[in-house]
Each structure stands twice: as C-alpha cells, then as structure tokens.
Amino acid sequence: MRVLIVEDEPKTGAYLKKGLEESGFSVDLAKDGAEGLMLAQEESYDVIVLDVMLPVLDGWDVLKRLRDTHTTPVLFLTARDDVQDRVHGLELGADDYLVKPFAFVELLARIRTLARRGPPRETERITVGDLEMDVVRRRVRRGTVRIELTPREFALLQLLARRQGEVLSRTQIASYVWDMNFDSDTNVVEVAIRRLRAKIDDDFPVKLIHTVRGVGYVLEPKDKA
Ligand code: CA
After folding, report:
1. Among 117, 152, 176, which residue terminates a domain?
2. I need a surface site. Which of 63, 105, 128, 139 has the fewest CB within 10 A?
3. Distance 30 CA to ligand 1 centre (A)
4. How far is the CA of 29 from the centre of ligand 1 (A)?
5. How far, in Å, from the CA of 25 to the mean position of ligand 1?
6. How far is CA 144 from the centre of its chain?
7. Total domain count, the chain
8. 165 CA to middle of ligand 1, Å?
C-alpha cells in the first residue's frame, strides 16, 4: 500500500516515513503543498496524510484542488485543536483528521482504516436511501423534498452519511462536530440528533438515523422495526 505524507517539518516527516515503512507501507514524502499536490495528482496512493500548515500551498488548498479530480482518502493533521479546522477539513472532503501531537499507533490505525475503506465513489454527492447530499452546493433532499439545514446540522449529517452503516459513538460525533470531549454528561449530541431527525426523518416512513443503545448512532435506510 502506498502512502503520501505531506509534511514540512523535516523531523516529523522523516519519523512518519520511517515508521510507516517499518509497518509495511511504501511511502513518499513531500515537503510543501505544491509538491504534495503534484505527487497526489500524478501518482496513485491508497492514503494521503496531509499537514494543514504548509509552505507554498497550505493543506486546505491542496485538499480543495485535489478533490476536483481525485477521491484518494485524506487524513489531515492539524496542530490546533480547533473545531473550525475539523469542520472545514471535513467539508472540503477530508476523510479523517488527527490533532498534533498524536501517537504513532493512532496514526497507523487511522491509515489502515482509510486504506481498507478505499476512496468513496463520489465525494460531491452522498446518497443514503432516498437522501441526497450535495456537498458542494450544500443542498439536502429526500426524494423530491428539499430540506434546509443549519451549517452544524449539515456537518453532522455529512459525518453520519460519509460513515453510513457505521455506528458512531457520541464521543466520536462530538469530537468531529463540536469542540468538546464528552466526559461530562452533556447531551449536546442527543439534542442535535433530535433536531436533525425532526428535519430529515419525522415526515418520512423510512427512517435514516437510528439509535444504537449504549453505543451511539448510525445512518442507514431502514424501516422502523
Ligand atoms: Ca506544518
């Protein structure tokens, strides 16, 4: 499996390259955004690990331009533990993210998951049953019914839709969509899910958002049992 690392800090880049090679990956290392974008467009990778703060082109620009033509899974690395970064990255079509500093084993696990999942068939349009999300135009419809969502609802739905069929825990959802860790008893995720359900599920016979008790939520078309 081939991995492209785009990382400008020489020590980090060399460390990641060495670690991934020792784990059996074939690794290319690009030291700025322009070089990274060129390699990503010309070569064929299973996963791209993309730093956000990069010279020449930053990670956002690389991701934006890459997504015009390629669906290669992208894991982005953000130094700031900033919810805006995560939401922005996912909106631009990143598949996952890690906040620096991270443990190498965590990076390895994420890369393996992304490599297994492979590129999505389409990144601009996500469909789940009769639900269709146009990620670029930010439109959502079920069948012929247009549904208006707030930006946060859209981010939440997009996360669930990209991982359709996969149960996501409240903690996972919170760390993607909100800037918080859910050790506390806050029910922000539940409230948001309820609001989203009211918009995308309540008026339709086939429900898409399902609660998996004690675990979290999954998005998939399924008749109410
Ligand atoms: Ca950097």
Report:
1. 117
2. 105
3. 11
4. 13
5. 22
6. 27
7. 2
8. 34
Token pair recorded at residue 225: 């049992």
* Residues forming beta bridges with residue 132, ordered by sequence position: 127, 141
Each of the 225 residues of the chain gets a pLDDT tens digit; together they read 999 999 999 999 999 999 999 999 999 999 999 999 999 999 999 999 999 999 999 999 999 899 888 889 999 998 766 677 777 787 788 888 888 888 899 999 999 989 887 665 556 788 999 999 988 788 999 999 999 998 889 989 998 998 888 888 887 787 777 655 555 445 788 889 999 999 999 999 999 999 998 889 999 987 644
Q: Do 63 and 88 form a contact (C-beta atoms < 8 A)?
A: no
What are the residues facing 125 on neighbouring strands? 134
Ligand 1 center from residue 8 Cα (angstroms): 5
Q: Ligand 1 centre and the CA of 91: distance in Å?
A: 20
15 and 77 assigned to the same domain: yes
- What is the whole-number distance in angstroms between the Cα of residue 75 and the centre of ligand 1? 14
Q: Which domain holds residue 158?
A: 125-223
Tell me the sheet residues that pair with 77: 51, 98
